[in-house]
Specification:
alpha/beta
Amino acid sequence: MKTAAIEIRGLSKSFTVNGEASEVLRDVSLTVAPGDIYGIIGRSGAGKSTLARCVNLLERPTAGQVFVSGQDVTHFAGRDLLDLRARIGMVFQDFNLFAQRTVLSNVSFPLEIRHDGAEARRARAQELLELVGLSDKAQSWPSQLSGGQQQRVAIARALANHPSIMLCDEVTSALDTTTTQSILDLLRNINRELGVTMLVITHAMSVVHRICNKVAVLDAGRVVETGTVADLFAHPQAAATRELLRADNGAATAVIATAAAATPTATRRPQHDAQEAGADHHVR
């Protein structure tokens, strides 16, 4: 059996607001295998982004453990923590590009932090811009790019350190439908071509349906259901899953149609109370 890319065991996270503890995540456990595109879906406030930030320790778990490639990283600090974050790329909804840096300089920035030479930084950044289809934008400024292009730059930057894992936090929420599809296709092909394991945080069933092979449904800080995409959404057990399906009828119809030819529900695993699709976008 392969070692899990990400394993979360009994993770809880609380914040203190005005002197009172607020529990955002409650006893979350899940396993992401190498090569998975694993979706974490839930409504706003379910704790999705906090969970992603606990994986690379931008947030420290209040309880529980986080394992990356079989190693308990929960209490990493100093050099160990820096090395961990170099192995885990992260892409955000709002791009987070440096306005005063060119596209090439934005992509190479993580390599500056680790003091790579100028030529090595330039070569890696150019390689990644070719990968995401922006080789002609190397000397452009972020303000000259569309939203989809800016997100492609952010994805290239997240790949600069050759990560084995990428955390994608609502990466298409600010984009239109056509651009969303092209970005999701790019992520899927990066997963296929480079073998990067992805944890995809989203509130949209259509995102999960398009690129994820497995999914966990998060509701009020708890994982209420997990399984393959087609299986779980064709036979939802948790109320939260059914509500998400109702909110995105188009994705639900597509998932159910796909599941009609699939095997029975052996892989679905409810918790507590309880495929990929599309044409390939080029990756060179």
